[in-house]
Amino acid sequence: MRALVQRVANAKVTVNDENKGSINEGLLVFLGIGKNDKKEDADYLVDKIINLRIFEDESNKMNLSAKDLGKEILVVSQFTLYGDCSQGRRPSFFEAASPDKAEKLYDYFVKDIKNSDLNIETGEFKAMMDVELLNDGPVTFWLDTDDIN
User: Is the pTM of this model over 0.85?
Assistant: First the structure.
């Protein structure tokens, strides 16, 4: 499972000009699900994301997490995080989960992260989405559960 996590001043996702989710200060999480991912991968990422200390404390050091500060989180599914561009010019999505499996794990991830008591917003799974964000920093991190296995 892969997550591109961006600290944002604000972010929103729309589908066909309809607002599906928006947040103020917090984290925008683009979530990709691989064909070998399991619920344990989602649990690991949820814990990592909400507790990742990427917000500044009073000394301007990254010492505080979204959970510490009660920040908002916007989760957007993005299968292209599993696009392999190493061969040729057309990305291969061989490592991406099937849509059915990905949707189940995405729903599990969202339900799991909502248990954090933070304000969680989402995009729309399998939809063509427009995502707007104002990156704060910029601060962007790449998390991949393959790195822990």
Answer: yes
Q: What is the pLDDT of residues 89-105, one digit of tens each?
A: 999 999 999 999 999 99
Reading phi first (left if > 0) and then psi (alpha if -120 to 50, else beta), residue 135 is in: beta
24, 16 Cβ separation under 8 angstroms: no
Q: Any idea which residues carry the catalytic annotation? A: 80
Run of H or E residues at 72: strand 72-77
Q: Where are the alpha helices (DSSP H) in 6-98?
A: 39-51, 66-69
Q: Rg of the Cα trace of the chain?
A: 15
Backbone angles phi, psi at 124, to 5 degrees: -125, 120
In the beta sheet, which residues pair with residue 92?
84
Residues 132-146 as b/e (b if ≥16 CB within 10 A, e otherwise) read ebeebeeeeeebbbe
